[in-house]
Design a protein that fits this description.
206 residues; alpha+beta; 2 domains; four-stranded mixed β-sheet; 15 strands
Length: 206
């Protein structure tokens, strides 16, 4: 009886693993991340997107919506550098939208992702998740490995790189009436995205 139960459990696990593999293959990341890696990346980027959205919501007026692109991963981490990036998108109250990052005028603004906002995304010796978010104003790394949602200590109060980026978008006319303001945009809608795709984040447009 015990042998039958063991065989049934094994069959279920094999089927579940096969389904999981097909799901990740269909997303185009099967050769880069396994099921455990997908879970890690989704957890880390969920917290990172919350950090970005919270900062904008609490420090900028005139924003009606914040949305995020899928998580774009590239490289195998062995022969080619392993990268993972997202594209945040801001909408103002006038119907305009603009992406953060990229080039405005002659300046290239920082990307958003692994090693640029997320300083660590890995497993430790006990196979536990290791996730650190960055505070660009203080150069500190904040351990959020055990957090389901953005903890208070991971909220940032000042982000000079993002501030410069948003100011440039306004000056360039891509956004209108978006201002640094402690009143913030409390009614802003946020559309998070933890879908993982293999590809070039710079080619994505909302």
């Amino acid at each position: 009886m015990k042998k039958k139960v063991s065989i049934i459990v094994l069959i279920v696990l094999v089927i579940a693993g096969g389904i999981g593999f097909m799901v990740y293959q269909s997303q185009g990341v099967g050769t880069i991340l396994d099921a455990k890696g997908v879970k890690l990346y989704q957890h880390g980027f969920q917290l990172y997107e919350e950090q970005i959205a919270t900062y904008i919501k609490e420090n900028y007026s005139g924003v009606s919506k914040i949305e995020f692109s899928p998580i774009f991963v590239r490289g195998d981490g062995r022969y080619t550098m392993h990268t993972a990036n997202i594209v945040p998108v801001l909408y103002d109250n006038n119907g305009n939208k603009a992406i953060l990052g990229g080039t405005i005028g002659n300046r290239i603004y920082a990307r958003y992702g692994l090693l640029h906002g997320i300083s660590a995304l890995d497993f430790d010796g006990a196979d536990e998740e290791v996730i650190y978010l960055s505070d660009s104003a203080t150069d500190q790394e904040i351990d959020v490995s055990k957090s389901k949602n953005l903890p208070k200590e991971a909220k940032i109060t000042y982000d000079p790189e993002m501030d410069d980026n948003i100011e440039a978008l306004v000056k360039d006319g891509q956004l209108k009436d978006v201002k640094k303001n402690k009143a913030g945009s409390p009614q802003v809608k946020v559309s998070y995205n933890i879908e993982i795709r293999e590809g070039d984040y710079t080619k994505w447009r909302p």
